Amino acid sequence: MKKIGVFTSGGDAPGMNACIRAIVRAAVYHGIEVYGIHRGYKGMIKGEIYKMDSHTVSNIIQKGGTILRSARSKDFVTPEGRKQAYEQLQKHGIEGLVCIGGDGTFTGANIFYEEFGIPIVGAPGTIDNDLYGTDYTIGYDTAVNTALDAIDKIRDTADSHDRVFFIEVMGRDSGYIAIPCAIGGGAEIVMIPEAETSIENVVDALRTGWNRSKTSFIVIVAEGDEAGNASQVAAKVQEELPHMDARVTILGHVQRGGAPTAADRMLASQLGIACVEGLLKGEKCVMAGIINGELVYTPFIETITKDKLINPHYLNMVNILSV
Ligand code: F6P
């Protein structure tokens, strides 16, 4: 293999730049030409493909976002779109791909490999940490620390005003961001899609705390929770507890930006090298991940179809720590 392409796709995540840097430098180290594909699958279809070298990735390891830009492509979902993308790669003589993204990215990569046989190795880049085949995804640690920083600040004002705050964190259908935010942020309650928490439970827990003379509370609501979003949960709880002063904060896309933490820079660098070396060793349709400190390549199909379960003990910890 002499020429490879690299792209980021789906929601950006802090550490993607560190991973791009590692991929480019590992390619240069192994004597391979590397091309940056801008705006994910969308740019691949349009032919937004540019040669990269060691210098093009200087001074980016500490930056949030992705220098390659990202997008969610509707056209790549169609066979015609994928054919156009393949033709663009052929035009540039690209023989292998490294993608950085989440389940949408890997779903696309899996179909693309099946249709055209071009080897693709992926690095897990999403703040959601919802991919099977790695303990942590690139961007997750930074997103959790960004959210925690905000939660600490909200706690100050919650305490000053005797209020209950319903704080919504990202994670799509997963509670991986919510759990460390709740434990690390000293929340009274956490609501995640993986476990049912009824409004009655929330009301009971707040009432019990109130009767024990607690006057301020933090409730962390994962955006995908089945009981509703933070505003909906707050409205339902407020109906039952009208004497409590409730406020809602949606942390939103602030969780996606910012300089990556040391842990994310390390993970991104390790996995970036692993992607290039995986391609060179003949890996074809897999994601590189780290499980218990060991590098593991997991077929894309497993990363997107298998569940990465949350340890139920974490939920219990929130209960124990909020007594
Ligand atoms: O997958 C990352 C993520 O930030 C999710 O947590 C969130 O549900 C989604 O992307 C938001 O996507 P968008 O930026 O397209 O609104």
TrEMBL record:
Record: active site: D128 (proton acceptor)
A GO term from the CC aspect: 6-phosphofructokinase complex
Cofactor(s) named in the record: Mg(2+)
The family this protein is said to belong to: Belongs to the phosphofructokinase type A (PFKA) family. ATP-dependent PFK group I subfamily. Prokaryotic clade 'B1' sub-subfamily.
Protein's recorded name: ATP-dependent 6-phosphofructokinase
Residues holding ADP: R21, A22, I23, V24, R25, R155, G186, A187, E188, R212, K214, T215, S216
Pathway the protein contributes to: Carbohydrate degradation; glycolysis; D-glyceraldehyde 3-phosphate and glycerone phosphate from D-glucose: step 3/4
Name of encoding gene: pfkA
One GO term of the biological process aspect: canonical glycolysis
Keyword Transmembrane helix: no
Superkingdom per UniProt: Bacteria
